[in-house]
């Protein structure tokens, strides 16, 4: 049991040493992507395929912006991925 505690403390030390960078815009982008996706799927289900298609295109744009924010943040802070 003590051996497991030693491993956990080593992992905690490793994670504390790692530089953590949080970008609050990434979760917002993820929620926006999920919201637009949900709205698009509901539109398709209701039979409004034109609106659904527009929302699916908007989802791609929002999702691309979210990925660009993630890559941009990693590049700015020098993270290796």
UniProtKB/TrEMBL annotation:
Q: Which PROSITE patterns does the UniProt record give?
A: HIG1
- Which InterPro entries does the record match to this protein? Hypoxia_induced_domain, RCF1
Q: What domain of life?
A: Eukaryota
Q: Per the database record, which ranges form the HIG1 domain?
A: 1-81
Keyword vocabulary terms for this entry: Membrane, Mitochondrion, Transmembrane, Transmembrane helix
Query: Pfam families attached here?
Result: HIG_1_N
Q: Name one GO cellular component term.
A: mitochondrial membrane
Q: Where are the transmembrane segments?
A: 25-44, 56-77
- Localization in the cell: Mitochondrion membrane
Q: What is its main location?
A: mitochondrion
Record PANTHER family: HIG1 DOMAIN FAMILY MEMBER 1A, HYPOXIA-INDUCBILE GENE 1 HIG1 -RELATED
Q: What is this protein called?
A: HIG1 domain-containing protein
Q: Which organism is it from?
A: Salvia splendens
């Amino acid at each position: 049991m003590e051996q497991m505690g030693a491993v956990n403390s080593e992992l905690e030390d490793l994670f504390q040493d790692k530089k953590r960078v949080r970008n609050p815009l990434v979760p917002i982008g993820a929620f926006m992507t999920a919201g637009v996706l949900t709205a698009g799927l509901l539109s398709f289900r209701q039979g409004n395929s034109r609106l659904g298609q527009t929302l699916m295109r908007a989802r791609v744009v929002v999702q691309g912006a979210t990925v660009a924010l993630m890559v941009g943040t990693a590049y700015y802070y020098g993270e290796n991925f």
